[in-house]
Amino acid sequence: MVWRVARQLDLALSGRVLTRTDFRVPRFAAADLTGQTVTAVRARGKHLLVRTGAGQSIHSHLKMDGSWRIRPASKPPPRDYRVRLVLANPEWQAVGSLLSLVEVLPTSDEGRLTGHLGPDLLGPDWDADEAVRRLRQNPDRPAGEALLDQRNLAGIGNVYKSELLFLRGVSPWRPIGEVASLDAMASLAQRLLEANKNRSGHITTGNLRRGQQHWVYGRTGQPCRRCGTPIMFHDPGVSGGAPKDRITFWCPSCQR
User: Fold this and answer.
1) Phi and psi (nearest 5°) for 103?
2) Model pTM?
3) Average pLDDT, stretch 179-196?
4) Is the pLDDT of residue 242 over 50?
5) Which fold has domain 128-250?
6) Beta strands of 89-234 (E only): which ranges?
7) Are 1 and 200 in contact (CB under 8 A)?
8) Strand partners, 163
9) Quick check: helix, strand or coil at residue 205?
10) What is residue 240's predicted lDDT score, i.e. its pLDDT?
């Protein structure tokens, strides 16, 4: 999803001069980048970076609820209280809503934001061997938690975590060091994201029909598509588990 958003922003903003930069966050409320030319918009893991020719970068993070919309510049500025940032040029305006993070920094300082990230599954730096090496550094860590850690490999969110573990037959709580063929898991993760990078949603079954797109994600209590066992659901916010686990869907029969 983040890769797709970056591509859409890049098409609307790159090569054009900013005529408006409306930061609706307290720390950067007075920031003004008008007159600067956007040179590129890039995704790095789940981070979005809008770079300008003046050596400035606008950094945003969507997390779970954030979004960007592209609208004609002729439309009136949005008054929605959820809007955090508006970037406009003579043709388009990009509206960022419910962004969990918005900041401006020198492009040369981007490393402090993304330097800790592992190989990006959709980036030019993708290195499966390095991703596997990082996953193996903490062999006792639960597999689901290890896959979500962007320091191991960047780009896996909660949907892909649940679907990937199901497809590999791995319990989310099995220690990552006990998972056979992490090479195959990393390769499958990259293929899943590559196949979905231009879609607005995630399709892991190959079936585009509504309600058929996922193997386990969002299917609590429904029969497993392979064995018929009811899909189970874990919410750490309800059961008292650590927040880093986040919600998990899995088949207790297919995933051991």
Assistant:
1) -155, 160
2) 0.84
3) 94
4) no
5) Helicase, Ruva Protein; domain 3 (1.10.8)
6) 92-97, 101-106, 232-234
7) yes
8) none
9) coil
10) 47
